[in-house]
């Protein structure tokens, strides 16, 4: 759903990490430092929304900060389409691999790991260490491929709840996510209401629109119609549907950016124009924006699994907590006991502010405490990952109140975007 | 989220103190154009009210979040579509009415979402304003410190003007208070006060 961490590194990191060499890279202030995931195995079968059962699974998990004795300072960060458990810090084996929400999470940052114990979980079905379509199916000894069950946001929440059990966390101080991660946070507040004190939903939506599903479907068709897809069982053919996956990523990427940002960054600038700035009158890259999208697509297709892309876009399509309540979102949100913070961005046309306002309206109707910030940022959907002072100030202010209400210590320092 | 140290009431402006007096303890309050959340924080901390604010400015929204006041960021000119009928006991519109484009609409919306409404606005009938006009100048005074060309105050009125509008919208005025600075003005308020505060009951 979002720009991947290498892309984030392109936009914001170079100034912060000028000399990122393979070893001995200094830890910048506000970073949680070097981190490595823990692989947690669950042998209790997971009953899925589809009716299928996942007999056992592993989840890749990273944590930052320390769980206090009362176990009331835990914050769960839910990831979006192409992100992972690697929320913050630098990967132990590659310091250039900076967590996807590193500007938000760290000592002295908005989600302050001096005080909060933050958990990032790679969802099942993903491809960064947790059980997914590329994992070995114990029943066959071969990769799951097309046989991997279709998952829903609710299935992810159920699996995440077991991670909370594993750490002995009865109730999260906050569950937080952007985009698809925001859907998971919302789902947590409904399905495990007594386990969520604060629910932070950023740049999200209570359900996809027909247009959103349309974009997802184009992406899926690009993958499925790639001759190397082999019905989803491409692993045993030793190939990946890289072309289809790259096209899927290209179309996704367009929806993450606003028209303004694309105009500003690329405009109609030509790439390698002919002499005197002439067009080349062909179908190879002619404009900068094409070059950029192709580069993003190719890069993505090298590290992301195509079946995971199908699975996660489908989970997005299915999400609609109001479905069982005749479309009445307020009724769907009735069980929620959390305090809510919602944030949207004015130029986000993928999940526009109106989608967040729908959630706000439903919460207000239920007399559920809610704060809503609508940030006038130019960056489109991607804004939730970027360094916007107002956005970060709202989140920091909110988390400082969460800390105060739990009797956690005062903030010791301010680092990162707001420093 | 109510642990913020309550400001001593003396630091709250006289008009806000009066507004707070008119609000029942423990009631649900919506503050339109809530600024940095001073009134709501006061009501939450001292009267156990459940409050929500509406504010457009980023900086004010951040200030509200920091002091634990629940706030919805939106432009009041867009109406109160986020709020259901009768969702609140009291809705407050403090020092904002005069700068709204659609004065009648916001008053109707207030009557829709809450049983009681409270509005405050600068009194255009304050006598030095008349003096200023006699001298050929638009008035520029403490409550209305702007020049004619840069003022956000596009719908100025006198006490009687407001009372007429309230009557035409079916709003029954239950209380009123008038101030000049921090002092309440009880004698000849139509001429001598700079700020008026009205409480009304919606016509239902």
From TrEMBL, chain A:
Gene from which this protein is expressed: metXS
Record-listed substrate binding positions: 249, 382
EC number in record: 2.3.1.46
Residues covered by region (Disordered): 1-28
HAMAP family in UniProt: MetX_acyltransf
Keywords: Acyltransferase, Amino-acid biosynthesis, Cytoplasm, Methionine biosynthesis, Transferase
Organism listed in the record: Yanghanlia caeni
Metabolic or biological pathway, per its Swiss-Prot or TrEMBL entry: Amino-acid biosynthesis; L-methionine biosynthesis via de novo pathway; O-succinyl-L-homoserine from L-homoserine: step 1/1
Active site: 179 (nucleophile), 348, 381
Keyword rRNA processing listed: no
Site feature Important for acyl-CoA specificity, where: 350
Gene3D superfamilies in the cross-refs: 1.10.1740.110, alpha/beta hydrolase (3.40.50.1820)
Catalytic activities: L-homoserine + succinyl-CoA = O-succinyl-L-homoserine + CoA
Reported function: Transfers a succinyl group from succinyl-CoA to L-homoserine, forming succinyl-L-homoserine.
Full protein name: Homoserine O-succinyltransferase
UniProtKB/TrEMBL annotation, chain B:
Pfam families, per the entry: MetW
First and last residue of the signal peptide: none
SUPFAM superfamilies per record: S-adenosyl-L-methionine-dependent methyltransferases
InterPro entries, per database record: Methionine_synth_MetW, Methyltransf_Superfamily, SAM-dependent_MTases_sf
Source organism, top-level taxon: Bacteria
Protein name listed in UniProt: Methionine biosynthesis protein MetW
Species in which this protein is naturally found: Yanghanlia caeni
Gene: metW
């Amino acid at each position: 759903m979002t720009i991947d961490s290498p892309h984030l590194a392109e936009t914001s990191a170079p100034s912060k990490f000028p000399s990122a060499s393979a070893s001995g890279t200094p830890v910048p202030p506000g970073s949680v430092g070097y981190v490595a995931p823990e692989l947690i195995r669950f042998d209790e079968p997971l009953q899925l929304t589809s009716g299928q059962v996942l007999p056992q699974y592993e989840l890749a998990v990273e944590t930052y900060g320390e769980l206090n004795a009362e176990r009331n300072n835990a914050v769960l960060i839910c990831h979006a389409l192409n992100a992972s458990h690697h929320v913050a810090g630098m990967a132990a084996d590659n310091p250039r691999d900076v967590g996807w929400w590193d500007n938000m999470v760290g000592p002295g940052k908005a989600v302050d790991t001096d005080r909060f114990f933050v958990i990032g979980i790679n969802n099942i079905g993903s491809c960064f260490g947790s059980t997914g379509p590329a994992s070995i199916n114990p029943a066959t000894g071969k990769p799951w491929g097309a046989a991997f069950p279709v998952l829903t946001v609710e299935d992810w929440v159920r699996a995440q709840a077991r991670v909370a059990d594993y750490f002995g966390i009865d109730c999260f101080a906050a569950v937080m996510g952007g985009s698809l991660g925001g859907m998971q946070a919302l789902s947590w507040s409904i399905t495990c209401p007594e386990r969520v004190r604060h629910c932070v939903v950023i740049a999200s939506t209570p359900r996809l629109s027909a247009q959103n599903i349309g974009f997802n479907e184009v992406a899926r068709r690009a993958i499925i119609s790639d001759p190397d897809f082999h019905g989803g069982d491409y692993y045993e053919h030793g190939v990946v549907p890289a072309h289809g996956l790259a096209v899927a990523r290209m179309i996704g990427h367009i929806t993450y950016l606003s028209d303004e940002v694309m105009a500003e960054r690329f405009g109609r600038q030509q790439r390698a124009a002919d002499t005197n700035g002439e067009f080349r009158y062909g179908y190879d890259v002619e404009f900068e924006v094409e070059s950029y999208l192709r580069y993003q697509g190719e890069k993505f297709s090298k590290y992301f699994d195509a079946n995971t892309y199908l699975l996660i876009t489908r989970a997005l399509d299915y999400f609609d907590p109001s479905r069982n309540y005749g479309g009445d979102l307020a009724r769907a949100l009735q069980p929620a006991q959390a305090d809510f913070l919602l944030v949207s961005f004015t130029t986000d046309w993928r999940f526009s502010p109106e989608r967040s306002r729908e959630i706000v309206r439903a919460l207000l109707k239920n007399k559920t405490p809610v704060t809503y910030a609508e940030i006038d940022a130019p960056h489109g959907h991607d804004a939730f990952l970027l360094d916007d002072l107002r956005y970060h100030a709202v989140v920091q202010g909110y988390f400082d109140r969460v800390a105060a209400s739990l009797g956690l210590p005062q903030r010791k320092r301010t680092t990162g975007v707001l420093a | 989220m109510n642990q913020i140290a309550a400001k001593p009431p003396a630091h709250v402006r006289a008009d806000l103190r009066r507004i707070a007096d008119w609000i029942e303890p423990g009631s649900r309050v919506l503050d339109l154009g809530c600024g940095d959340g001073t009134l709501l924080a006061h009501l939450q901390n001292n009267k156990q009210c459940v409050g929500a604010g509406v504010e457009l400015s980023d900086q004010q929204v951040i200030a509200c979040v920091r002091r634990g006041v629940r706030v919805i960021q939106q432009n009041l000119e867009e109406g109160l579509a986020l709020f259901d009928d009768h969702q609140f006991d009291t809705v407050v519109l403090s020092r904002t009415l005069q700068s709204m484009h659609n004065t009648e609409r916001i008053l109707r919306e207030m009557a829709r979402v809450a049983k009681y409404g409270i509005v405050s606005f600068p009194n255009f009938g304050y006598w030095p304003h008349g003096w200023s006009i006699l001298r050929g100048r638009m008035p520029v005074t403490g409550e209305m410190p702007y020049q004619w060309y840069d003022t956000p105050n596009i719908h100025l009125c006198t006490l009687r003007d407001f009372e007429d509008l309230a009557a035409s919208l079916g709003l029954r005025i239950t209380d009123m208070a008038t101030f000049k600075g921090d002092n309440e003005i009880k004698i000849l308020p139509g001429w001598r006060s700079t700020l008026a505060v009205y409480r009304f009951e919606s016509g239902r």
